[in-house]
Amino acid sequence: MLTKEKKNTLREWLLITAGILILTAGVYFFKFPNHFSTGGVTGIAIVLGRYIPDITPATLVTVINVFLLILGFAVLGKSFGIRTVYASLLMSGLLELLEVLVPLDAPLTSQPLVELMFAVGLPAVGSAILFNVDASSGGTDIIAMILRKFTSLNIGIALLCSDIIITVSACFAFGMETGLFSILGLIIKSLFMDVVTDNLMIKKCFQIITSDPLPIEDFITGTLHRGATQLHGEGVYSHEGKTVLLTVVSRHEAVLLRNFIRKSDPAAFLIITSSTEIIGKGFRGVN
């Protein structure tokens, strides 16, 4: 029987794997054939592949990732996360495997804008999943870790600048049309990534004002296996004593809790809000 901690660990590794699968599909099937360079290691590989035609972009991604992993271990040592190593090598291996199993000589469709949406959307979803479990696909994130350790640079700005340089270089490597698509893709990626990340991290915060808290408390702790905080209040008009329960649950659990309260205590007053930053036991740890 797996403990709760082991189940959570297994779930996180499965999510990392799923995130890499989604990310790799977007890169291989949509970015590579169209030469969309929107930054990162895959963007570098796409541009370099234009000038080194004997080496495929997938192989270039592997070479760059391995180099950066070695650099990361040399500079960062034990602080270099095993999740990043796993994700980086898995992505490189999958790209190499897809080149053998599903070779592509041209884009899947004749609609570059549609392909750009998938080239940006799939990697954004995959990266958001990785971010949600404190992992990354390596690549330029490794450089960011090194910069963070030794400099006071704004890492977000530094990475954005590097992405812009890589993206603009596509204009010179593949022509203005592909370059402009790549620039558009970088803009969409920046916006889409925030939206996807926030949606994956959304939790529901409940404030429940009730005169009969015990059934609700039992449901929260016994059925949902969540914690709650109990406060004592008083109605301003009636001066009747009330119990205020504070709890945070997932979106699925929120539906169950809301339906239970409607049936068990129709007179209860509910305030339900959304939050993307919940720090504490059972949620994200304090770094």
Structure commentary:
This protein is of the alpha+beta class. The protein folds into 2 domains: 4-200, no CATH class; 202-275, Alpha-Beta Plaits (2-Layer Sandwich). It is built from 10 helices and 4 strands; from the N terminus they run H-H-H-H-H-H-H-H-E-H-E-E-H-E. A 4-stranded antiparallel β-sheet has the order 2-3-1-4. The model has no long low-confidence stretch (mean pLDDT 85).
What does this entry show, briefly?
By secondary structure, the chain is α+β, with helices and mostly antiparallel strands. The protein has helices at residues 4-34, 40-51, 57-76, 82-101, 112-132, 140-150, 155-174, 176-201, 213-223, 251-264, and strands at residues 203-210, 229-234, 241-249, 269-275. It has 2 domains: 4-200, no CATH class; 202-275, Alpha-Beta Plaits.
Q: What is the total domain count? A: 2
Number of strands: 4
Number of separate helices: 10
Beta-strand share of residues: 5-15%
Mean pLDDT: 85
Low-confidence stretches: none
Widest beta sheet: strand line-up = 2-3-1-4
Biggest beta sheet attributes: 4 strands, antiparallel
Derived from helix and strand composition plus strand pairing, the structural class reads: alpha+beta
Q: How do the helices and strands follow one another from N- to C-terminus?
A: HHHHHHHHEHEEHE
Shape: elongated
Rg, Å, rounded: 24 Å
Helix content: 55-70%
In whole angstroms, how far apart are the ends?
30 Å
